[in-house]
Design goal:
The complex is a heterodimer of chains A (299) and B (265). With 299 residues, chain A is of the alpha/beta class. Chain A is built from 9 helices and 13 strands. The model of chain A has no long low-confidence stretch (mean pLDDT 96). Chain B is built from 4 helices and 15 strands. In chain B, the strands form 2 sheets. In chain B, strands 1-8-7-4-5-12-11-14-15 form a 9-stranded mixed sheet, with no helix packed on it. In chain B, strands 2-3-6-13-10-9 form a 6-stranded antiparallel sheet, with no helix packed on it. The chains are: A alpha/beta (299), B mainly beta (265). Chains A and B meet through helix 5, helix 6, helix 7, helix 8 and helix 9 of A and strand 3, strand 9, strand 10 and strand 15 of B.
């Protein structure tokens, strides 16, 4: 194979999650040229009527490779692609599918229409040729019921929010597997660019009580327990919340706030410092406005 | 032979006297020669010095507002601190002439592309010490319209200032935040318009310093300074923007912030 072609090949490797479910693990890192933006976990489910995908990866190339892999694993073409939320590492691979194959909640469809295309410049800048030909498709299948059954497989649709304005988690009844999207991170620090922490906590409470046997997080390894990753995600966002509130109260500027010590209990979390510094950027302006008293006004 | 020797000595002496050329750039910036002359002027004595601690995050999450801190407290006789980014269309953002203040300033700037971000301090003898590093950034920090311009509410908040003073023993700190669009002039039909000067004084009447800003400072500028004040003293600020709108107020240590409810939106 010519070097140039090899350089833009994802070489997707499935891991078995449960009966008829595989996950393709993303790199537990930032979006980088070296990983082609393949940082999010993507799930493949087998049904009698075809393969079902949860999320589509970052690019047309990824979506195309994903289609081939799903065919290889299930022997069938892709019946449906569910998108969990608006971030491009999960959605931009939907360029490889037709709009009617792509499913999302009404709230997510609205966000994809308004904000989805805006990630394009940044993705092309970071990833160059990995992104060739990638153009986000707006989902044509609107999720309107609490569950959807495809080829005998019943999937519960949990329309939540908190990591973003519209987060979809999917519960596979047959195997008791929760596919959590980015509401749950595992051993990889949660990212917060569109986060609403109180809503995120409420969503995590909901996810904790579904009776699941295991959880596929949006980023990081599969959690083989019912809620260790859910608890870890909550622990991190609670810590970030408290730590940044304390930082502004102590007068730290945002450079210093991004350099505070990360507690040892998060030592296993990949990209922790990186996500903390991103979270400072997301939350500090609001914290400053609330903690600095008004001391001057136009006469 | 002797004449030639004198001639050579004369030639060799040139670099040490007449030609105070900029030192070779540690960061390899293509703009160093041009920006260096702009910031330091002709014939300035300039040295790189790691004691000028220029600190910023590893990632430019928001190219409209990138936090930068310059801490030169390890260096005596600092009278001025400037912050500049070589590849920005407006390179210099901050020029802080300090009086009764520690040589320290933190703020946020706009980034227009991958660029060196530098801090330079001028000493009493007029010479400069510089340090800094590269940061990768997406484009548009200087050429995208300010959020308040998009929302349309910028004019309602002009003049609004927030502040807080921490009287940490021997290391007081004041954080000042001003509502201002800080228009760069690079957005269609919006001329340059920015907060250009802020003077800070102690309640005892001693000058703390004056910060001159350019439009490359982020929208709604925030300044963190370390004033040398006596216990119980407060800090007043007084500044103006390029349309003559004045910003003034007093920050006391007793002015404690409202209870903060957490980072959630």
């Amino acid at each position: 194979m010519p070097v140039a072609a090899a350089a833009f090949h994802y070489d997707l490797k499935p891991e078995v999650v449960a009966d008829g479910i595989w996950v393709i693990r993303g790199a537990d890192d930032a979006i980088l040229m070296g990983n082609g933006g393949a940082i999010a976990n993507v799930t493949i489910l087998d049904t009698k009527d075809g393969a079902v995908l949860v999320d589509a990866g970052p690019s047309l190339r990824y979506g195309t490779e994903l289609t081939a892999l799903a065919k290889k694993l299930t022997g069938k073409p892709v019946a449906r692609v569910y998108l969990t939320h608006l971030h491009p590492d999960h959605t931009y691979g939907d360029a490889a599918f037709q709009p009617l194959q792509i499913a999302a909640t009404p709230a997510l469809i609205a966000e994809l229409k308004s904000e989805g295309p805006g990630f394009s410049d940044g993705m092309y800048r970071l990833l160059g040729d990995w992104m060739r030909g990638t153009e986000l498709h707006i989902p044509g299948h609107v999720i309107a019921t609490p569950s959807e059954t495809i080829g005998g497989r019943t999937l519960r649709m949990l329309a939540l929010a908190g990591h973003s304005g519209a987060d979809l988690a999917i519960y596979d009844e047959a195997t008791k597997t929760l596919i959590a999207g980015d509401l749950v991170f595992h051993d990889r620090a949660p990212s917060t660019p569109h986060a609403d922490l109180p809503r995120w906590r409420t969503s995590l409470d909901t996810l904790k009580g579904l009776g699941q046997a295991r959880v596929v997080p949006g980023h990081g390894p599969i959690d083989l327990t019912p809620h260790a990753a859910i608890d870890q995600t909550r622990d991190w966002i609670d810590w970030v919340d408290t730590a940044l509130t304390d930082a502004i109260q102590a007068g730290l500027d945002p450079v210093e706030a991004g350099e505070i010590a990360i507690p040892p209990r998060f030592a296993m979390m990949k990209a922790a410092r990186y996500e903390l510094q991103r979270s400072v950027s997301h939350f500090y302006p609001g914290l400053e406005e609330r903690s600095l008293p008004l001391v001057g006004k136009r006469a | 032979m002797k004449t030639l020797g004198i001639l050579l000595a004369g030639l060799l002496a040139i670099p040490a006297t007449a030609d105070a050329a900029l030192p070779k750039d540690q960061l390899g910036s293509p703009m160093w020669g041009y920006v260096g002359k702009q910031v330091f002027g002709e014939n300035a004595v300039v040295r790189f010095d790691p004691r000028v601690k220029v600190d910023f995050p590893k990632i430019a999450e928001n190219q409209r507002s990138f936090p930068v801190q310059v801490d030169a407290r390890a260096i005596p006789n600092v009278v001025r601190i400037v912050i500049f980014a070589d590849m920005n269309p407006i390179q210099q953002s901050i020029d802080f002439s300090l009086a009764n203040a520690e040589p320290f300033i933190a703020t946020r700037i706009k980034l227009d592309q991958r660029t060196p971000v530098r801090g330079a301090v001028q000493l009493k003898d007029g010479s400069w010490l510089v340090s800094g590093g590269w940061i990768d950034a997406a484009g548009g920090g200087c050429s995208a319209p300010p959020v308040s311009r998009v929302k349309g509410d910028w004019a309602q908040h002009l003049g609004e200032s927030r502040g807080r003073l921490w009287e940490n023993a021997g290391a007081a700190r004041v954080m000042l935040s001003f509502r201002h669009p800080m228009d760069t002039g690079f957005v269609d039909n919006i001329p340059a318009y920015y907060l250009e000067r802020m003077t800070v004084t102690s309640s005892g009447g001693s000058a703390i310093g004056t910060v001159h800003m350019q439009a490359s400072v982020a929208e709604d500028p925030v300044l963190t300074l370390m004033p040398k004040i006596k216990p119980g003293e407060s800090v007043s600020f007084d500044g103006r923007d390029t349309n003559g709108i004045e910003y003034a107020g007093i920050v006391t240590a007793a002015t404690v912030g409202a209870a903060v409810q957490g980072a959630g939106r």
